[in-house]
Specification:
The complex is a heterodimer of chains A (373) and B (403). Chain A is an alpha+beta fold and 373 residues long. Chain A contains 11 helices and 8 strands. In chain A, strands 1, 2, 3, 4, 5 and 6 form a 6-stranded mixed beta sheet that branches. Chain A has a two-stranded antiparallel sheet with strand order 7-8. In chain A, helix 9 (305-331) packs antiparallel against helix 10. The two termini of chain A are 31 Å apart. Helices cover 45% and strands 14% of the residues of chain B. Chain B contains 11 helices and 8 strands. Chain B has helices at 18-34, 47-62, 81-94, 102-115, 118-129, 244-256, 258-279, 292-322, 330-351, 367-374, 385-396, and strands at residues 135-138, 154-158, 161-172, 179-185, 196-202, 208-213, 222-233, 237-238. A 4-stranded mixed beta sheet of chain B has the order 1-4-5-8. A 4-stranded antiparallel beta sheet of chain B has the order 2-3-7-6, with no helix packed on it. In chain B, helix 4 (102-115) packs across helix 6 (244-256) and helix 9 (330-351) packs across helix 10. Chain B is globular. The N and C termini of chain B lie far apart (52 Å). Classes of the chains: A alpha+beta (373), B alpha+beta (403). The interface between A and B is large, with 50 and 53 residues.
Chain lengths: 373, 403
């Protein structure tokens, strides 16, 4: 297995990085997080032009036909910049539902060309929040076949990016199994309310459907593969974002520890600080390796891709929280202020750590594989 | 996901390229045929056992399993680092002993390859591969541990010879070695890093005395070496006078890098043994694996070992592309030492008092107790964890120099 990024992959990473640093300096991200809208719609077309939305979409549907590894590189950069907006919702969570649907040929080109931004609604009131439980939804509808209309009535909780998107993919159950339904945000029967959530750069909403029109995307009796791919991409790209966030937090901490002097020396020259950051570096690189491993195993349908992915998420997601904790400690009182960007990273990583099972529960699954029931 | 862990490919968990897969099956076939000829290595091998070990090492070399990534012109196999990793994994899985000349293969050899003159390369590399000549390393001194650049063993040029006096310590294989890669001070008048040189010293030279040191395991795994007016030919120097520190860094990068990867492959195989131990019914017929706390400790360790192994593959891939080891490769050794200690700790915790016995009546021949004691040295040897963190902090993270 070759794990060095190719020159093309490095060039792609650098191009994404400069796009994001140009358009999303930290001050801008903070302003957006505190603004009423929460994101900057004007940048979406730039992502589209760079082919980021349709990166792994087949060329026949207008995409670039790239691999999961390129998308991991993309989301590392998004995490590093703390990109606000619906790129994760659209690319990680909604696109796989469309690509797994016979309707994909009709809808996917609109997504790739930037005409349609999307999010996924999967959490029921009082239900499991983890992505792996999306197919266990209790929201019930009457499915009449792929492409046919259904009526949806009920509530979905914690839906990300609702106010930045044009359509939702809603998980609901029919007579034969769990299905996925495409809903237009302009529909009369749909209302939403912002959750008093933690992350201003990726807001969540409670969405209420009242006889809302939805189109059936997949055959509920044969949908498990589509749910698996949503889980896989959701977890992999959340982990990649977490590695990116951690990387940025390390850079910020290292800069601060170099400039900030106490007792006449830069605090980064003291081992009490420098060894913490060396350890942080080590943990970030270990998590990055897990992301690449998962991407390659998932891409080639490796026999143990799911175990690789659970391992990755169990390390990368809590790792980003720990990175923020360390950064706050290095920054001291400054790290506790609203003005500092660090709490934005902490907020994002706390929210994204709930995308699936907890790290303990992921390990519980791995333990079954490793040690038997 | 019907496959269970350990069913067919043991600890191997990363998809091979076609070339790697072909090499893996070649290695497996060879080990199936020849594995039973491997000697059983004991802590204090007799002369006859040392002979057997050398013979086995020569067999490995003849089969192309020594110097796997070295250029063919120097007796290597010219293979990729991915294939080298395959060898490490398969050797660990088959539980066959390392090449006897491990210091030569992983430390002295790469240093000579990187820095040696054409005649040094042709003189030293082939005998080293075939274990006809064994190497040891003379770096640490009683007064120079982490502060290696303060080494005081001195070499003074007299005519066409260096005259060496001083003391080295923690030298593995010194009691059987034919050659020593020796760090000496050739110029006491310049700043400490600049006055060092690396010499290639014949261990049969008059004036060398080797005294084995007994470790906490009870084994004399390494020695002290005393040099009293030892005469070394002027041309037996790596690079030139004053190049010693930079050349020694090449040695240490390989010790922490490629050798670290071999150790991590070993760790993968030992983790399999820990998993097997946890699945065996212990006292009161309970499997340790049924205890939720033990389960989670083993699972966390397993995840961390996979992360280390993939990180090592990244380091090796990088080495294959650029020909050099980045300072970031230091995290491999840093992490390996922590995980190796954790593994031994979990195993002895699981065994309780049964884990505290050695000898033939002990569980698994006392291997876990041995490891419990031996692994404490892992965070000290080849650069303490504190020094490695300094390297990462200063050279990778870019923090100001510490004090």
């Amino acid at each position: 297995m070759n794990l060095v990024l190719s020159p093309e992959q490095c060039a792609f990473r650098d191009a994404v990085q400069s796009l994001l640093t140009d358009n999303y300096p930290a001050s801008h991200v903070s302003d957006l997080a505190d603004s009423s809208k929460g994101w900057d719609e004007s940048s979406w077309q730039k992502f589209v032009q760079m082919g980021l939305v349709g990166l792994s979409v087949p060329e026949s549907l207008g995409g670039a036909g790239a691999t999961l590894l390129e998308e991991v590189i993309l989301f590392e950069q998004c995490g590093q910049a703390l990109l606000p907006g619906p790129l994760y919702s659209t690319v990680a969570l909604a696109l796989p539902a469309l690509l797994g649907s016979p309707l994909g040929a009709e809808v996917v080109p609109d997504v790739v060309s930037g005409k349609r931004r999307m999010a996924l609604a999967w959490i029921d009131p009082g239900g499991e929040s983890s992505l792996s439980s999306a197919s266990q939804t209790s929201l019930t509808i009457n499915d009449k076949g792929i492409g046919r209309d259904v009526e949806i009535s009920g509530i979905k909780k914690w839906v990300m990016d609702v106010e930045c998107v044009d359509s939702l993919v809603v998980a609901a159950k029919s007579q034969t199994g769990a299905g996925l339904y495409l809903v237009d945000m302009n529909d009369q029967g749909i209302t939403w309310q912002a959750t008093a959530g933690i992350d201003g750069t990726r807001r969540t909403f409670d969405v209420t459907f009242d006889r809302t029109r939805g189109r059936s995307l997949v055959d509920p009796a044969n949908s498990s593969h589509v749910f698996d791919v949503i889980w896989q991409r959701g977890l992999l790209f959340a982990s990649a974002e977490a590695v990116g966030s951690s990387t940025r937090l390390l850079e910020l901490s290292a800069e601060y520890a170099t400039d900030r002097e106490q007792f006449g020396q830069p605090i980064g020259s003291y081992q009490a600080i420098s060894h913490q950051l060396a350890d942080l570096y080590m943990h970030i690189e270990l998590a990055r390796s897990l992301c690449y491993w998962s991407a390659l195993e998932s891409e080639t349908d490796g026999r143990d891709a799911a175990i690789a992915l659970r391992s990755t998420a169990s390390v990368a997601l809590p790792g980003a929280i720990e990175a923020a904790h360390r950064a706050i400690q290095v920054f001291g009182g400054v790290g506790m202020t609203w003005e500092s960007i660090i709490h934005r990273y902490l907020r994002r990583s706390l929210q994204m750590s709930t995308i699936d099972l907890t790290a303990v529960d992921q390990r519980h699954h791995i333990a079954k594989f490793l040690l038997g029931d | 996901m019907s496959r269970r862990y350990g069913d067919d490919w043991g600890s191997v968990f990363i998809t091979d390229t076609d070339v790697e897969a072909a090499f893996r099956s070649e290695v497996r076939q060879w080990l199936e045929v020849h594995g039973n000829e491997a000697p059983h290595i004991v802590a204090e091998p007799s002369e006859e056992e040392v002979k057997q070990w050398r013979r086995w090492s020569a067999m490995l070399a003849n089969a192309g399993y020594a110097g796997i990534t070295w250029p063919i012109e120097f007796g290597g196999a010219g293979r990729s680092y991915g294939e080298l990793n395959v060898w490490f994994e398969e050797r660990a899985r088959a539980q066959i002993p390392d090449h006897f000349g491990v210091i030569g293969l992983d430390m002295a050899g790469p240093t000579i390859l990187a820095w040696g003159t054409p005649s040094q390369k042709s003189r030293f590399l082939a005998p080293l591969l075939g274990a006809r000549e064994i190497w040891c390393q003379g770096f640490s001194e009683p007064g120079s541990g982490s502060d290696l650049a303060s080494a005081r063993t001195k070499a003074v040029l007299e005519g066409d010879e260096w005259v060496v006096s001083g003391q080295k310590v923690w030298s593995s294989f010194a009691s059987v070695a034919d050659w020593c890669l020796l760090l000496v001070r050739t110029d006491p008048t310049v700043v400490k890093h600049k006055g060092l040189s690396l010499l290639l010293v014949d261990m049969k030279s008059p004036g060398i005395e080797v005294r084995p040191l007994r470790q906490i395991t009870g084994d004399p795994e390494f020695s002290e070496i005393f040099f009293t007016n030892v005469r070394v030919p002027r041309e037996s120097i790596i690079g030139g006078p004053g190049d010693g520190w930079r050349a020694a860094m090449t040695t240490l990068e390989h010790e922490r890098g490629t050798h670290g990867v071999a150790l991590s492959a070993q760790l993968g195989a030992e983790l399999d043994q820990l998993v097997a131990l946890a699945k065996r019914p212990g006292t009161k017929q309970r499997r340790p694996a049924d205890d939720p706390f033990v389960r989670d400790r083993i699972t966390q360790l397993w995840i961390d070992v996979q992360a280390l192994r993939v990180t090592n593959l990244r380091v090796l891939s990088e080495l294959g592309e650029t020909g050099r080891l980045d300072p970031s490769s230091s995290i491999g050794k840093l992490r390996w030492s922590e995980l190796n200690q954790r593994l031994a700790t979990i195993a002895t915790d699981v065994l309780g008092i049964d884990g505290l016995q050695s000898g033939p009546h002990a569980v698994d021949g006392g291997r876990w107790l041995y490891r419990r004691l031996r692994t404490r040295g892992n965070t000290i040897e080849a650069g303490t964890s504190e020094i490695l963190r300094n390297i990462v902090a200063e050279r990778v993270v870019g923090l100001p120099r510490g004090h």
